[in-house]
Prior knowledge:
Layout: E1 2-4, E2 11-13, E3 24-29, H1 30-43, E4 51-53, E5 59-64, H2 68-71, E6 78-81, H3 89-94, E7 98-101, H4 103-106, H5 112-131
Antiparallel strand pairs: 1-2, 3-5, 3-6, 4-5, 4-7
Helix pairs in contact: 1-5
Amino acid sequence: MVKVLGHGSGVRPSTADACDDFCDLVTVPVRQGLEAVDILRRVGARAVGPVLHDGACDTLQFLVPPGTADAWDLPGSACTHTGGDVPGPADVSAVGGGWLLPPGDIGRLTDPTVLRAALGEAARLIAAADDCR
């Protein structure tokens, strides 16, 4: 397991001991999530933190600061507490998922306010593209 040590402090490998919440996960449909990653990366490499994908590539999960789940209300997404444990690379591969942006490469959690704006922009871009078909 990988424990996220806090917003802006990076991620470091740790044991899987029980701990307090260190991050939450925002889960979104993969199409919207990939658009949001692109939007966030255009803002700057530090705007987006680690991102997980499921094995079927149906969803992406953004690591965000603890407590985000308490106030998250963006339609079409969900935010859950992790209890401090986020799958490490071996754990994710074992269940068929993986890291789109691994913790070691990024080192920061995604700011939920910035993520919310990027997901909103992504939804508008997707709707506009779908309307052109």
